[in-house]
Amino acid sequence: MKKTILFLGVLLLSTMSYAQFQISASTGYAISSAGMKLGEEVNSSRTKNTYGSYGEGVNFQIRGTYFFNDSFGADLSFGYLHGSDQTVSKVDLDTQQVDAIARARAFGASASVVYKFTNNIYGRFGALIKVGGKTEAVVSSTSVFSDAEATYIGLPSGSYSETNYVEDFHGVFPLGFVAALGYKYDLNESISLFVEAEYYGISLKRKDSEIQEFNTDFFLADGTLAAEGVYTIDNLPDGYDIKTEYVDELAHTNTDAKELAVKVPYSSFGLNFGVTYKFKGKSKTE
């Protein structure tokens, strides 16, 4: 028993003698990896799938890393993703035009194990979660009234409606995987620059969505405004709900604002650039 305690004590002192804490700040850009279908592009001659990932875009990270010895450490990171626009629907027809995009505005965190292969090359891998944010959909559409519709609402033939709205989608907290391989260059004993390739493997299951802005105007065929604010967020047309819940099971008789849940991709592969500040720790010779 005494030998065991002595061994653990020596191991702890040895670990502490090499201990070092450092903080890093970085930014980078990620592209879609194994993109999934996000929507469709439609015109008079064809329909085309669009693929991508909401993980594509600019990211910012701040990270704290504690090295137990010369090789192994633990890493805790917090980041923000400013996602790129992803096409959800693009319709180009004589009587209808739709331009709908969606983009991520997400906060995440990760906990990783770090290993130094050499003094300059390192790797890290661990768990990733999204802790906040949204997927924001921005939709703009125009639709030409049929002659019967135009006559019913008292407008001349060729008149059309223009609708613009913003809808925020929220998801269930997911668990994913993060891995990175990096190279660092020491400027001095305290400050280093680094570049790293990073992979995120994560998908998000939708929980609910809420319309934030909504407006529909009517126009004459020549583009003259005929009626402003016909529909607003306080007066939504049929087929729209301010808030929608996403569920795993839906009765055929359901009339509530519910839809079946789907998973959307956030996986990405990116390149990060940053700077590291190392706090002075005990060295081997001390």
UniProtKB/TrEMBL annotation:
Keywords: Signal. Gene3D superfamilies: 2.40.160.20. The keyword Signal applies. InterPro entries: Beta-barrel_OMP, OMP/PagP_B-barrel. It holds the Pfam family OMP_b-brl. It comes from the Bacteria. Residues 8-211 form the Outer membrane protein beta-barrel domain. Residues 1-19 form the signal peptide. This is Outer membrane protein beta-barrel domain-containing protein. It comes from Formosa algae.
